Amino acid sequence: MSIEADQVIALYTRHAPAWVAAREQGAFVEGEWLRRFGVVMGVNETAADGRAVLDLGCGAGQPMAAHLVAQGYAVTGVDASSTMLELFRARLPLQRAVQADMRTLALGRRFAGILAWDSFFHLRQDDQRRMFAIFRAHAAPRAALMFTSGPVHGVAMGELQGEALYHASLAPDEYTQLLDAHGFDVIAMSVEDPDCGNRTIWLAQSR
């Protein structure tokens, strides 16, 4: 068991201002994937909550949640770091912010879109496997689900302000199997997308 995996929330809390500054100064390369996410959500737009998005590991809300809000979506941001949520509320005061661990989330409602961007991959592999039931529990019919992972099964250590930052991934075949077993179809997937910061990205839709 990796000790570093238990330190992710504290690490982001400790270095929240530096992380936010770096994120806001970086290039916004996620626009095309957010556009695709919106297309999948579009099938729900006539429903009462057809533009409701659940952002798991929302951080300070930049750039993902802010972009979605600008497009007319209502975002519920979830983060385990109270410091990050304070920054989220300051930037997006009209959106709902919930302090919670995504691994035990139970909001009792469903969303047209679920996003776990640059957050899901900080979970241990067994926790990632268990997350698919939580995705399912919060997904409306035909909801969009988008998350980032690693390209292959394994653990990779990054760095945040000189401290070790834990990442883990399952194999692509296992993600595909987990999605299918929990009622999601893969719409698009890219391994280390060169146009999106070399992220490995999954976009799926609930059945």
Structure report:
The protein has a single domain, classed as Rossmann fold (3-Layer(aba) Sandwich), CATH 3.40.50.150. Helix content is 33%, strand content 31%. The protein has seven helices and nine strands. It has helices spanning 8-14, 16-25, 31-41, 64-70, 82-91, 125-137, 172-181, and strands at 52-56, 74-79, 96-99, 111-116, 139-149, 154-160, 163-169, 184-193, 199-206. The chain has a seven-stranded mixed β-sheet, with helices on both faces. Strand 2, helix 5 (82-91) and strand 3 form a beta-alpha-beta unit. The termini are far apart.
Strand order, main sheet: write it out: 3-2-1-4-5-9-8
Give unreliable regions as ranges.
none
Assign an overall shape: globular
The top-level CATH class is: Alpha Beta
Mean pLDDT: 94
Structural class: alpha/beta
Question: What is the CATH architecture descriptor?
Answer: 3-Layer(aba) Sandwich
What's the total number of strands? Answer: 9
Whole-angstrom Rg: 16 Å
Order of secondary-structure elements: HHHEHEHEEHEEEHEE
Main beta sheet strand tally, sense and closure: 7 strands, mixed
At the fourth level of CATH, the homologous superfamily is Vaccinia Virus protein VP39
Bin the strand percentage: 25-35%
The N- to C-terminal Cα distance equals: 35 Å
CATH topology: Rossmann fold
Percent in helix: 25-40%
Number of domains: 1
Q: Helix tally?
A: 7
